[in-house]
Design goal:
It is built from three helices and five strands, in the order ββαβββαα. It has two domains: about 30 residues; about 70 residues, 3-Layer(aba) Sandwich (Ribosomal Protein L9, domain 1). The protein has a three-stranded antiparallel sheet with strand order 3-4-5, with no helix packed on it. Strands 1-2 form a two-stranded antiparallel ribbon. With about 100 residues, it is α+β, with helices and mostly antiparallel strands. It starts with a strand and ends with a helix. The radius of gyration is 22 Å and the shape is elongated. It binds FE2/S2 (inorganic) cluster. One of its GO terms (molecular function) is metal ion binding. One of its GO terms (cellular component) is cytoplasm. InterPro entries: FeS-contain_CDGSH-typ, MitoNEET_CISD.
């Protein structure tokens, strides 16, 4: 048994649950998730380092997530500036699906 900071005693099963929860929190804080937005950017969430071709690092302080341009038309590359909507960007998976539909009709 171990004494919890609140003053109560923890039995072994409670200690294990607490340890597992703390591990889960630590893993979640270090996890990076990249979400492909439909006909839009890559949304990158989590602790990342973003560097250019010269090794210079962007300052992402205070940004828990960034959106990276996938259409190639952003004026703020590598970040998305919303231009994909204006140009009607269609992601490859949607374009292939549309092409396949045309072939079948
Ligand atoms: S994906 Fe948004 S501007 Fe390119």
């Amino acid at each position: 048994m171990l004494r919890h900071p609140s003053g109560s005693w923890l039995v072994d099963s409670e200690m294990n649950r607490l340890r597992d929860n703390q591990k889960g929190i630590r893993m979640a804080e270090n996890e990076v998730t990249i979400t492909v937005r439909p006909n839009g950017p890559f949304r990158v969430e989590g602790p990342i380092k973003l560097v250019d071709s010269n090794g210079q690092q962007w300052d992402l302080t205070g940004k828990p997530a960034v959106s990276l341009c996938r259409c190639g038309a952003s004026t703020k590359k590598p970040f998305c500036d919303g231009t994909h909507s204006k140009i009607g960007f269609q992601a490859a998976e949607a374009a292939v699906a549309a092409e396949e539909a045309q072939k079948q009709s």
